[in-house]
Design brief:
Layout lengths: L4 E4 L8 E5 L13 H4 L4 E5 L15 H11 L4 E6 L1 H12 L4 E7 L17 H13 L1 H13 L5 H12 L6 H13 L13 E6 L10 H6 L4 E6 L6 H4 L1 H13 L4 H6 L1
Parallel strand pairs: 2-3, 2-4, 4-5, 5-6, 6-7
Antiparallel strand pairs: 1-3
Helix pairs in contact: 2-3, 4-5, 4-7, 5-6
């Protein structure tokens, strides 16, 4: 059973491949605002995670199971962009299949979403656990609340929230997939495996993000052997949605840095 994927610019072999992995409760439609920018420079593959969008549910909802399915749906070698939960999956892909990841972009993501004493700049475990309980009880209502949380702080929060509600509820993710994704966010800690990721990494976030504080972006970046970080001043947890042009410029500059002349022509 493989994850559904949708490819744009499939006939343009001169453009570098870019894989997009959405966040919790979302699907590949979340990229609709940034996609017109991306498809100018990249051959884009958007992946629906298991139980999200039009992808089937999985029995095995471990991070490795999802990562292996994503690899099966992806080009043989590509740049990977993961947003939030999708960033966890993209990091795992880069760790277990380093040869298939040209570069890695983490958008509003982190190796560990839950705060601990040695990793304080994250979400309090009690807050996360309480929300997880609500997800199990009322998945749709929880998804709506999470949409509001993701856009809170952004200068364009009202419009971002409207776009996300319109996009993400058609179709709605399966309740079991929401539960599985929340468990991955709660339990996953990929900090130690960051050393296995040798490709260049861009950590990109919003200064107004209430889930991933911008002050932790430099700490996340330091976990990788070759990395850099950037902050979009007026953005929240979905910078590609609120600031598609600025997000695209930062992403494009990073992706085409030190690339072959053939790929640079695509830019």
């Amino acid at each position: 059973m493989t994850v559904l994927n949708k490819t744009v610019n499939a006939d343009d072999e001169l453009k570098p491949d870019l894989v997009l992995v959405h966040g919790w409760g979302a699907h590949s439609g979340v990229w609709q605002t940034i996609l017109p920018f991306l498809e100018q420079s990249f051959r884009v593959t958007s992946i629906d995670l298991p139980g999200h969008g039009y992808s089937p549910e999985f029995i095995d909802n471990s991070l490795d199971s999802w990562a292996e399915a994503a690899l099966e749906a992806a080009p043989k070698k590509a740049i990977w962009l993961g947003w939030s939960l999708g960033g966890l999956l993209a990091q795992r892909v880069a760790a277990i299949a380093n040869e298939r990841v040209e570069k890695l972009i983490l958008a509003a993501s982190t190796p560990k979403f839950v705060a601990t004493q040695e990793w304080p700049s994250a979400v309090d475990e009690k807050v996360f656990s309480a929300f997880h309980t609500e997800v199990v009880k009322e998945p749709r209502a929880s998804l709506l609340r999470f949409i509001a949380l993701q856009t809170r702080g952004s200068k364009t929060a009202s419009e971002d929230s409207r776009v996300l509600r319109k996009t993400l509820l058609q179709p709605e993710p399966k309740a079991a997939a929401l539960d599985a994704g929340m468990q991955l966010l709660l339990k996953t800690d990929l900090r130690e495996q960051a050393a296995k990721i040798t490709c260049p990494v861009l950590v990109l976030g919003g200064k107004r993000d209430t889930l991933i504080p911008y002050i932790v972006l430099s700490k996340i970046s330091e976990l990788f052997s070759s990395s850099e970080f950037n902050v979009i001043a007026q953005a929240g947890h979905a910078p590609f949605l609120s600031h598609p042009d600025e997000f695209h410029k930062l992403l494009s500059d990073f992706c085409f840095k030190n690339m072959t002349e053939e790929y640079k022509e695509a830019k």
